[in-house]
């Protein structure tokens, strides 16, 4: 992806794009992927970096949702299990099978979860990742040595998908770019363009880096901005009621030896009725999540102290070694764009995670709700509105079987796996410069060549783009990312021909952001 080449496409003042997408997270990229599978021309903008918001802050799971099954949302679970199975085939370098174990403490729980998960297996059909089964106490502790043994009766094993969310977003952007989509980060939408009848005909946007402004003509405009959807709806109609209720989820990252195995732990019912996961991810353990109502959406939300305490206390109830604040390598928060509940209702965990597509009188199409697992189906359902908006016939969707950039049957070993078929060309960059073989941090396998690749091929514009979303170091160990930042800044400055002033400014910005991922002892 070449940002300047894509910006140059915006100079064409006559061109009319079929679809202009606002938002470069899972929803917007899902729309772009489906639209290109039907041969439509697409331009996509994000005011920050791809997946900067909610889409890089998930629990890293591709799942049907055992909890949604318990709530009776069978349709969502069927849909999500189908999408989960397909994505593991379309992006095998980023998504894989992850065994989970639910610790069982009573015979009643054994019966309930065994029956429920057999139904989960059956619903996945031929796309099932493996059969669920009950295992003994001894086998449970063998597979999860870090689990408390007191009162343990056994465990129920089931299978779900796990993935790297920000890398998938990036690879989706690359897939779209390769198919002719104009994808751009750091471009904000200033206003909607309308004709005399009040119908939307395009957008006014500005490049946040060069400050240059552009007018975009489009047959259909899609608002896929997640928790910020209300801002675009009110840009369209200042009297539009608020539709989004942000709900915050946080995750704590610990060393993997707190769990001790390759299996993930799923606590189906915490003291306040929420689900808690402890999932191995990139050599660390991601523990979460919470469900806390927040009034205003933020691009960089921060974990509340009560949320940190809740996750630590709940995890301590199941782990043999009690995690403390000192053990937390990184803490990150994300905001779910839930449908605003009816008056008097505050139970966000009971709000369906199904997505909704809304067509405004102006022709603005808004995609709300949903979850990462169903991003492609969300995109397909949104693109279906193209005929309603334009009157033009639409080709059938082919996105269900589209291979994502990087997909390969031979996934590289170790940390190179997430790059898929790009791993080899990154490694070959070291022939250009031997010093690019150097590690960015002694505790991480990532090398300087990955920074060069992120700048040249992955549209990384800032230190944060590299250390948070191209290389996931900020999410895995915030202090390590802060330590590596000067090296990354120097590499980027040399590659992008920036001066010492840029380095100083970038480091200040990054350190300010990264400090929010450090837990206050």
TrEMBL record:
Cofactor: FAD
Statement: the UniProt record of this protein carries the keyword Ligase: no
Example of a GO biological process term: glycerol metabolic process
A matching Pfam family: DAO_C
Record key words, sorted: FAD, Flavoprotein, Glycerol metabolism, Oxidoreductase
Keyword Oxidoreductase attributed: yes
All copies of domain Alpha-glycerophosphate oxidase C-terminal, residue ranges: 416-500
Gene3D superfamilies: Alpha-glycerophosphate oxidase, cap domain, D-Amino Acid Oxidase, subunit A, domain 2, FAD/NAD(P)-binding domain
InterPro entries from the UniProt entry: DAO_C (IPR031656), DAO_C_sf (IPR038299), FAD-dep_OxRdtase (IPR006076), FAD/NAD-bd_sf (IPR036188), G3P_DH_FAD-dep (IPR000447)
GO terms of molecular function: glycerol-3-phosphate dehydrogenase (quinone) activity
Domain FAD dependent oxidoreductase: 18-369
Family: Belongs to the FAD-dependent glycerol-3-phosphate dehydrogenase family.
Protein name per its UniProtKB record: Glycerol-3-phosphate dehydrogenase
Organism: Algoriphagus ratkowskyi
